[in-house]
Carbohydrate ABC transporter ATP-binding protein (CUT1 family)
Amino acid sequence: MAEIQLRKVSKRWGSFVGVREFDLTIADQEFLVLLGPSGCGKTTTMRMIAGLEDASSGDILVDGKRINDLDPKDRDVAMVFQSYALYPNMNVYENIRFPLKVRGIPASEHDARVKRASAMVELDEFLHRKPAELSGGQRQRVALARAVVREPNVFLMDEPLSNLDAKLRVSTRAQIKNLSHELKTTTIYVTHDQIEAMTLADRVVVMSKGVVQQVGTPTEIYDRPANTFVAGFIGSPAMNLVDGTLENGTFTADKISIFGLPTQHSGKVTLGFRAEDASVADSPAQANSQVYSLELLGEATMVTMRAGGTIVSVKSGKEYRTEIDDAVHANIPADICHIFDAETGERV
Ligand code: ATP
C-alpha cells in the first residue's frame, strides 16, 4: 500500500518559488506523470517526495503518515534518474544487488531477488558484464532493475528514458508500464515529453512555472484542456489558438469566422481547435487562406495555412493534393472548438 498525499507543498529559495502549493492525492498503485516544460518544478516536486529536498511548507504523507522529517533512506521509495550512475567496477549482478546490501537484506535472499529483477528487464544474459560493456538501453535497464530489486512501495522516475534512442524509448516505456503494473507499485514519473506522458499515465499533472495547471486522465487533458497553456502544450501539433472576438455565438478574427458556437460568452477570447478536428478544402471561390507549408505524415498530410495574420494547421487525408501558396479553405466545425478567456487563458 502506498497512497501519497501532497498537501499544499511549496518549495521556495529566497523569494523564488520553485513549486507553489502542490495539492494532490496519488492513489495506491496509480501511475502519475508530472509533465511540463523545463524549469516548471517537476524534479523539485519529486525530490521533495524522495526527501532529497526539504519542502518549505506543506505536508507530504504516505498512507496517512507525515514523512517530511524522515530521512531519504527511511522512505520506502526507489528513484530512477536520467543519469543512471552505475558503479563501473561492479558487474551487472553486483550493481543490481547493491541496494540489498546497503539495506541489510539477508544475503540468503539476494540471489533470488537479483535474478527476479534482472529477468523482469530481460538482462539475465548480461549479469557478468561491466557497465562499459553494455549499450545505453541495457544500462538504463540495469538502473531499473536496481530500483525494482528493492521491491519498494513507490517508484520515482525522473526522465528515465531521455538517454535512449527513439526505438528503445518505446520498448523501455512499455516495460516500465508493465513493471509498475506487475509490482503493484505507486509510480510518479517526470517527463517533458507529452507522448510519454499520454501513453504511460493513469493521470497527468501538467505544470508551468511551479504551478499545477491541470490534473486529469490523458483523455481529459487532451479533450478538455483547462487553459491555453495546457491546450498549447498537449498534442502534436499543439492545438491551434486564435485570438479574436466572440459575440452571439459567432467568433471573428481577421479572416476567420465561425458561426453557431454553443456558448453565451462574449468579448475577447482565444479560440482553439485541433488540426485533426478540422478539414481543408480547395474551394477558391470562398478560399480564405493560402497554403504555407505541407508535411507528409504517412497516414495524413499536415497542411499549415495562413489566413491573414493567423497561421493554423489542419490535417487532411493523405490523398489530398495541394501546393504551397494554393488558395484553400479551412472547415472548422463549431462543435469541436474550445473557447478560452483571452485575459485569464481559462476555459469558458
Ligand atoms: P527540467 O525538465 O529542466 O529538469 P524541472 O521542471 O524538473 O525542469 P526543477 O528542476 O524542478 O524543474 O526546477 C524548478 C525551478 O526551480 C527552476 O526554475 C530551477 O532553476 C529552480 N531551482 C531548482 N533548484 C534550485 C536551487 N537549488 N536554488 C534555486 N533555484 C532552484
User: Anything to note?
Assistant: The chain has two domains: 4-229, 240-341.
